[in-house]
Amino acid sequence: MSGLTQSFGIAALGGYVPLLRLDRKAAARELAWSGLPMPRTGTRAVADWDEDALTMAVEAARLLCPESAPDALRFASTSAYFTDRAQSGMALDALAMPRTVRTSDAANSRRAATSAMLDALLGRRDEIVTAGEKRPTQPGSAAQLAFGDGAAAVRTGPDAPARLAGYASLSHDLVDRYASRDHPFTYAYEERFVRDVAVAEVLVPVVRAACVAAGIAPGQLAHAAVHEPVGGCWRAVAKALDCGIPNHCEAVSEMAGDLGTAHALYGLGLALDTAEVGEFVLLVSFGSGADAMVFEVTSPVPGASAMAAALKEGQVLASYSRFLSLTGSLELDWGMRAEFEQKAQATVLERVGRDMIGFIGGRDSTGNVQFPKSAFPVNPALSEVEMMEDVRLADLEARIVSITADRLNFSPDPPFDFGLVQFKNGARVLMEMVNRPAEGFRVGDRVRMRLRIKAQNRRLGFRTYFWKAAPLMRPVLGDA
Amino acid sequence: MATGIRDKVAIIGMGCTRFGERWDVGADGLMVEAFLEALADAGIERARIEAAWVGNALDDINVGNSALPAAHALRLSTVPVTRVENMCATGTEALRGAAYAVASGAVDIALAIGVEKLKDTGYGGLPLRTKGMQNDLWMPYGSAPGTFAQLAGAYAARHGIAVGDLKRAMAHVSWKSHQNGALSPKAHLRGAVDMEKILNAPLIADPLGLFDCCGVSDGAAAAIVTTPEIARALGKADPVTIKAIQLSASNGWEMQFGAWDGASVPNTRAAAARAYAEAGIRDPRAELDMTEVHDCFSITELVIMEDLGLSDDGRAPADILDGRFDSGGAIPCQLDGGLKCFGHPVGASGLRMAYEVYTQLQGRAGERQRGKVDFGLTHNLGGSPFNSVAAVAILGRLN
């Protein structure tokens, strides 16, 4: 445990919440006959079929790397799809960062992201830590409604607007819940036991120590972002430490759900959005122990307000059976058309995979951009082979040129919207659409690019990723 | 200067199976059926066939790749057989291969045969397979109706037509073809369908409903071609000849470059212009007596009418609703019911179209007979509107 005086801390934050939100009350009503206890307030963010921990973590990190690449890119999740293929390396390509940026994956604990962030802060390195979570849950479990899908990312750096003032870390193998290869769904122990032990043995000591390290009393904290193992922990900790301040992670739980490794970081974004200059903000993540950090706000933190706004945007997911299907809890018989094989070849990925996941097109000698690149440009004004300059399309807006809602071909979440989109730089690409508006897509609609799963082969356990076009704006919840 | 193939190749025999859900035969049986009819029509021994082109598009379902399935099915002994594939233009591509062989003088008599056995997939529509190539990493797995449905939105936007009005013209396309198909003994779907049913059918790919889509069928069709001289020697005093066969393929321009508005198919326009020139047709609206076009979807036929120059741009909906392309109209389209009623066994469709024109040219179409037919056009469109292969063939008589 240590106090820090150097001005090193959080340079910027980013967050991502999927469009769809399940009303917990409506879902609980579907299961009322069972008598099973489950949360009944707020909404739960639900990832689309083609979103996973990686895609959401990339979305969260996108705004953190505008001009310069960081020293390192860290990916954290307890629900990453690949177990022997670094998601951080794929995220690096999706974010079009140089291959010289160091990468690593962190997993197996809900505090994997904050631990990676703390390492970056202590090492005084410019790093991006991005956490994404789409945890499998079982129907009927409280976790299925309490958990949410989403991501949060942070960039560390010098002269940061949120200075790390002090920290403490405790390792404690308190088994409040677990998931394992043999039990991929979370298995939760009695809440009263967890709350009593976590508060007394982990949370109060670690928060107290972090405040000591920061040279402040707990009562000087203005905001908290505490990822509680179970509800009521922060209330007990605050009472013990005499600091009755709001826990911004509760808003994340209420509106999106427990985001696992991303939860504390998302709550931190809300806390920093609210905090005034000069105030101290507490961050606590929990999982096999806890990390506690105290930040002093020296100026507004880029990205924080966007995280707060994103929580309020979305579309209500009214169908409980669609929710079950999207979460993998209900296996529909999609018929023979769903049987087609979506195979990927490593040789092809090696040749062109980076251009695909990075959405890199090429600019020809006239300035026209095309995707994918080719030896002979598609531009009719050119007739000779030429080298093209790389142009990233992922961060550009486009417009729909042609569109349909395909109800014939298999899609895990029909209809299958696709069509041509046109970029201002000349590139025209046939693309899938996502985040279908209530009135459907129309020719001329403005769209933005989102990283999604392109194809998945469940038999071979492999996924490929590409970009899909989404409406430029999201509806505000309640208006949808 | 190339002179083209106008009147250098005669069709002396054609065959076409009944199209449909042919649970009774496999691809080999379909080929035999079409081949035997063509042989009988030509009045030649099969040993006279010196070369063959077989077209099938989907080698992963039942027909198989290479020359061998056709060579085996037809027991073509040591004949040079070539398999061709060019998506939905495959049947016309087979005819082009055989015609070019004869026109070049390489052989005297050649066979073109197209076949597809779609109904062994177990579902409607075309099968989907990916092989892990570059396109699989980014290109959407849209269905055929999904890709062609996009013509409708783009067409409506280009010409300022309300989608509802466009839907009525599209429905007329399907209504007309079902009327015609009812008179086609070899068609898959032989019932007339009323407009209300067409307009209220469930959506397959917005705005295409069920009746805006052609059927999926099994079938085969074949043509035996030779020189006009040999045709006459065989007793064909006024043989049907090929006036033109032209093909145009996308180079990616439509789907990768920003200039195309999605409301027409440039390849059809290019292939048609070349075919008219090759056939010596200056005014297709006045000179063509009938067309058999690639009506995989109603909107496709509508756009094709403009692409072939048979309607002014933006006028096809009105012309269709005015009955210009009905069986009694100025330029009837799909006198046999088209893909709409025959279904679309991909490799066979181009030759099935040629079969109808060939039959009409000889006045043998029974109650479907248009009257005197001097020129008939067939058109195939493979792939999708934004990435296509278009084939246009024009048939007539030698004299």
Describe this structure in words.
The complex is a heterodimer of chains A (480) and B (399). Chain A has helices at 24-30, 53-61, 87-94, 112-122, 142-146, 191-214, 233-241, 249-255, 263-274, 304-311, 320-326, 346-357, and strands spanning 2-3, 8-16, 20-23, 43-46, 72-76, 102-106, 127-133, 150-158, 162-171, 177-178, 187-188, 221-226, 280-286, 289-297, 315-317, 360-363, 369-370, 389-392, 398-400, 404-406, 416-423, 428-432, 446-457, 462-471. Chain A is of the alpha+beta class and 480 residues long. Chain A has two domains: 2-326, Thiolase/Chalcone synthase (Peroxisomal Thiolase, Chain A, domain 1, 3-Layer(aba) Sandwich); 345-471, no CATH class. In chain A, strands 1, 2, 5, 6, 7, 8, 9, 12, 13 and 14 form a ten-stranded mixed β-sheet that branches. Chain B folds into two domains: 10-122 and 218-241, 3-Layer(aba) Sandwich (Peroxisomal Thiolase, Chain A, domain 1), CATH 3.40.47; 144-211 and 242-397, Peroxisomal Thiolase, Chain A, domain 1 (3-Layer(aba) Sandwich). Chain B has 14 helices and eleven strands. In chain B, the strands form two sheets. A nine-stranded mixed β-sheet of chain B has the order 3-2-4-7-1-8-11-10-9, with helices on both faces. In chain B, helix 1 crosses helix 2 (68-74) and helix 5 (163-181) crosses helix 11. Chains A and B meet through helix 12, strand 20, strand 21 and strand 22 of A and helix 4, strand 5 and helix 8 of B.
